[in-house]
Design a protein that fits this description.
Blueprint: H1 4-20, E1 38-44, H2 48-59, E2 64-68, H3 105-120, H4 126-140, E3 144-146, E4 149-156, E5 159-166, E6 169-180, E7 188-190, E8 204-206, E9 220-224, H5 228-239, E10 244-248, H6 259-262, H7 266-271, H8 277-290, H9 296-303, E11 308-311, E12 316-322, E13 325-330, E14 333-337, E15 339-342, E16 346-348, H10 366-369, H11 379-382, E17 407-409, H12 415-418, H13 428-446, H14 448-457, H15 474-484
Parallel strand pairs: 1-2, 1-6, 2-3, 6-17, 8-15, 9-10, 9-15, 10-11
Antiparallel strand pairs: 4-5, 5-6, 7-16, 12-13, 13-14
Helix pairs in contact: 1-3, 2-13, 5-9
């Protein structure tokens, strides 16, 4: 049974925790002409990363405005397009909580359902995580503008000029710093294999499309891939009445060990930024080549259906449409399906999002900086942004755009440069804190002389002059004492 009173008590505890820590700090920025449309920090995206960054900035005494193209309450992928039943992360994950343990999912869950239900919980249900994030947003109170779609980003001497498409027409904002907390969509697009080039769109979709799976009732579905996304799509189709699901898997077997999971300790998290370029590349290349298995529960969610078929060592050679059916020619024979789902991941495409077309030509990439050994060549890695130590984009060589370092890649495209502290739930708080502290320093340094002048011009008196009485000269006091004797 849900406890409303328990949640109210938790919310009061959070207010006390922040009060005891003297948080959040009052705004101290000296940015000139600060107004509603002239911002210290703009955050693009009000999902988990965006609202965590906004809270981290607030704790540093920095105001920000968060922009999201979704309607209020629908931010992030948790309602759609995500399809997993539960999160991959363990239930005790800290997630976005900063400054107070009472802001964690565990505290939120226990306040409503109690310790016994917590002990029975295996993994966090996806939709419940979405509810928690909405509560977290309510408690941390970022300033969010919904249904604001970024359509243009322009770098100027005064900062970034951001143009948004809104229900009230185009709106322009000027921001000194811009954080791109745009999740999977950041500079990326679905990775669509060439064998789909001639297949009409109404026969297939990418697994991240977020469509209505109820329309697959009674249909034969083919799913390409073995990833977590492939399992989620397959299971959801089967649960909505698909007649069969054929999983077409290039690998000869499922990978069994999640290599990246072993590295999830504070030492690795803190040390990654000190790795050399070669060490960062080698680690990421190894994990990718070792392959990441789908979660245990996600795979069982598929295999418990008798009409789910795991076809290994099956590579697609060609697909044709005959009599409104897909005929899929593979290395293990022909498969016939009504619809195809591609769980083929994402790839970077710097030209995809026109909102950044005035900025992306100047962004430095890994391919321009590092040349790996021949056995570690990876064309996808070469496209990743080569970031500074604090998520900041860097300009290409011989491109004198130092202002580009006020644009931050706070999304999965940062993973090669920054490690697993962004886009993944366990280290979201670590990444947000690192970014907020960096921006605080830059905002101060941008107006260092004015801050110093504030020190020199300060008039607030600690002592009023009536806290003491000046002593008589020592010799006079001695003389007076002798005369008394």
């Amino acid at each position: 049974m849900t406890s409303y009173n328990g949640l109210k008590a938790l919310e009061e505890q959070i207010r006390r925790d922040l009060q005891y820590l003297n948080l959040p700090l009052t705004n101290w920025s000296l940015t000139p002409n600060h107004s509603h449309h002239q911002l210290d920090v703009a955050i693009i995206g009000a999902g988990m990363s965006g609202i965590t960054a906004a809270f981290a900035l607030k704790l540093q005494g920095i105001k920000s405005v968060v922009f999201d193209q979704a309607v209020a309450g629908k931010e992030g992928p948790w309602q759609t397009p995500a399809l997993m039943e539960t999160l991959r992360s363990p239930k005790h994950v800290v997630g976005p909580a900063l400054a107070s343990p009472s802001l964690t999912f565990q505290a939120w869950f226990k306040a409503q359902f109690g310790d016994e239900q917590w002990d029975l919980l295996d993994k966090i249900p996806r939709l419940q995580w979405g509810e928690y994030l909405q509560w977290f947003k309510k408690m941390t109170a970022p300033y969010v503008l919904n249904q604001y779609q970024l359509i243009d980003t322009e770098l100027s001497a005064q900062g970034y000029i951001l143009t948004f498409k809104t229900p009230d027409g185009e709106q322009r904002y000027q921001a000194q710093h811009v954080i791109l907390a745009t999740g999977m969509e950041s500079f990326s697009e679905p990775n669509i294999p060439a064998f789909m080039d001639t297949i009409p769109n109404h026969y297939w979709e990418h697994s991240y499309a977020g469509s209505d799976y109820s329309r697959f009732n009674g249909l034969d579905i083919a799913v390409v891939g073995y990833s977590a996304g492939a399992m989620d799509s397959s299971a959801t189709a089967l649960e909505h009445g698909a007649r069969s699901v054929e999983l077409l898997i290039r690998a000869k077997d499922m990978p069994r060990v999640n290599r990246g999971k072993v590295a999830g300790n504070p030492g690795f998290t803190q040390a990654y930024s000190q790795f050399t370029d070669a060490q960062k590349w080698h680690y990421s290349d190894y994990v990718v080549k070792a392959k990441t298995p789908a979660p245990h529960g996600s795979t069982l969610r598929v295999s418990r259906h008798d009409n789910a078929y795991f076809n290994f060592d099956t590579q697609i050679k060609q697909i044709t449409v005959k009599n409104n059916k897909l005929h899929i020619d593979t290395t293990t024979g022909e498969y016939i399906a009504d619809y195809l789902i591609l769980a083929t991941g994402y790839r970077l495409n710097w030209q995809k999002h026109t909102a950044f077309s005035k900025v992306t030509p100047f962004i430095r990439t890994w391919g321009e900086v590092y040349r790996p050994p021949s056995d570690e060549e990876n064309s996808e890695f070469a496209l990743y942004p080569y970031l500074g130590a604090n998520f900041e984009f860097l300009p290409k060589e011989n491109c004198h755009l130092s202002e580009l370092s006020n644009l931050y890649c706070f999304n999965l495209a940062a993973s090669l440069s920054m490690g697993p502290i962004i886009g993944l739930i366990p280290n979201t708080n670590t990444g947000a804190l690192k970014l907020a502290e960096h921006i605080a320093a830059k905002l101060y340094l941008a107006h260092q002389q004015q801050h110093l002048q504030q020190v020199k011009d300060s008039t607030e008196a600690e002592l009023l002059g009536d806290e003491w009485q000046p002593a008589l000269p020592y010799r006079l006091r001695i003389t007076q004492a002798d005369s008394v004797e």
